[in-house]
Amino acid sequence: MTHQEPTIATILRLLANEYDGPVDERRVLERVLERRPSSAKNPYATIRERLRWDGLTLGWLRLNRGQLVPLRIALLGLRFRCLPRPRDVAAGLLPVAHLQPFAGLRNYACTLRDAAGAAIPFVDLDADVGRETALPAFDLAAWYARTGFEPGDSIIVTVTSAEPLELRIEREERLAFRDAAVAAQDAELIELIVERVRRSQAALVPCDEVVLPIFATASWRNGYPGSPWQHLVLRDGRLQLVDDIFLTSQRIGSLHLFGNDEVFEQTERGERDYQSSDSALLAEIELLQRELRQARQRDAEAGLWSGQVQRASAAFGSVDGSGGRRPLFGLDEGRDGGDWALDDDWDPDGIFAEDEVDMDDPATIDAAQRRMLELIPPADAARLRDARPEEAELIIAGHLNMLLTRAPELFPRLELVAPDEELDPAAEALLSGDWQEVWEDESVDDLGEELGDDEVGDAFAASADLIGQFHDYLLEMGKSEGTARARARALHIYADFLASYYGRTLASGDYATLDECLFFYYPRRVMNTSSRQVRELCTALKQFYAFLRQRGLVGDERFAEAIWRRRGQAARVVELYERVSSESPSFELLFERLFLPYTE
Length: 600
Prior knowledge:
3-stranded antiparallel sheet; 12 strands; 4-stranded mixed sheet; 23 helices; 45% helix; single chain; alpha+beta
């Protein structure tokens, strides 16, 4: 019988049953490695990723950056309040949204019981078509009638068993609610929720990642329950609740990821509703992100990389240059509650009629400055007017991603001139776009010379030499001049990326930097690209590193082959980014979700 090594998921589930309180994450990681040794450079990275994305399903809840607690310990004995809507009571239902995140977000594998221990039936939406609900719900019609429940009364819920999950419900009359007893609790809870959402730095945060850790450690977790956390969020105004399960500190429109039904409706909406296409687009992005996480995890487990994401190019849009994420264009910074909507008539004199900035024309430069001031938030525009040159660079850098997307005409753009010879179809596909990082009409061997003798220039020059060798190799292998030239030129995207952000040559490329280049840098920086082009680029990279391996210039080319297998994912990132409207109020949200984990 073949011995099968336990998986990380299996070990984590077993460990969750061995602890009865908080435990340092490092200790959990070490215990996983004791049972499943790893030779990876950073063996903790893969385990951390599993805990990050699948922790709750594996029985673990993250309390803070360094501590975990078994989910069963966090839930057992916990008490919270539900306030069914009048229409819920009239329909005899309790939508599961009232029980979230305590009953989970991903499934409804829980049992609801009354005070006598009798199970409450779950509504079968397919069979019970006559009920006025399109949401998962429990059938409380008989319980409402038996207890004399009326709109305004509360349901007190207690977690009586964590594995399997069982909840007990009791009625509390409206007049019995102790406002004074929960005032401090409510104030503490909403402040902790706001703090965690803002600290997460993500556009949309699942409520279980925010609410469960707070309840797990609160002094009142098994005492008299305060107001439902959803009601506190709706009343507070600093946060927005999306689809009943996501929290955000940004003011976005009415976004429905999973349909148009909400239990906890926002009292105020954003500037305007999302178009249905934005909702569908975000849903597609979320599906792609699941695939990307799984692919990266598989490659980490295969030893192709450490699992540690590189983010050097993310610092490009960071004010402090640290590489940490900051708002792309300051939705909430210095606005004083006002708008800064774009003006479609910003260029009445047609100065930019040719979609190009003439750097020798004062009128053009002045118009570009005015356009930039209109695009960035008012507070930063005011700072920019009085800023010294070095301060102005920092201010503009913080909004550069937005400016490149919404007003690319403000930045000079280099065009690629195709060679005179007739190209084969693959080469034409590569040369049909605007390869922003490639110089015009230069030989392959001369492309690195213009950068000078500094570290970046030296690295790029060395890469250009390798590309030249690859170009000659393709010709020796019988490829046409057009194909050889196109594939060699395509490699300059990655060569420029490595030199500019890491001071490295193509011979020092690896999985992490190639992933960053293709899934973050490339879609944003190469104008007029297409999914066909990114696939061809992946093919060129695979062939190039096979060539370097053959010549003994690199020890392992498997990382490039692994990325090549993900070429379909890279193409989908390009396709989805093309569909992100720069005019949509959901632009930042879509941008951030599409380019995870580089925007975290």
